[in-house]
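Reply to dn_fold:

You asked what the input looked like. This is it:
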Amino acid sequence: MTKRENRSVPQTASAENPIYHNTYKLLKIYRDVTWSMELACQQVRMNFETEYGTSIDDFLESVYLAGADFGGTEIESHARSIERSRKMLKLIDSSVDLLRRKHKHGEIYYWVLYYSFLCPQELEDVPEILEKLEPHIHNISYRTYYRRRQDAIEALGSVLWGYANRDCLALLDKFYPEG
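and this is what came back:
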């Protein structure tokens, strides 16, 4: 966070929630993970084509048709690692999409999350984010941005981690008391 961002960040009880922090941390590394995945996939493809003279897809298709098994090999380990990372990114992307389509403030939350964390190029600072948000949220102030960002992170956290957090469980206990 820059000094500019830090001066107007509202401190609320929800910011203390571990689900908020987990979601925030996940969003903070999203660009880096996406970039790393792109590089890893490109590097594997190039190395494979250089070494074997064929694309990975063509090679795997012929290997599977022949009934070969890569179980326990370095190729399998690397492929599983890339696949796990892809699944994580897909989970985040589909959760953001669900939030956008189904939440009552989904469109606003989407754009706040997009320009804050998800767009390929990290924006310079909050004024630049506010400028990008202007077509989607007219006359948005610093305070409104930070409030909307926090609300969006909390809503995304609910999608990603489910409603099993402490606040939701307390609410469920009120509706469905034990005994």
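The two ends are 47 Å apart (CA to CA).
Hope that clears it up.
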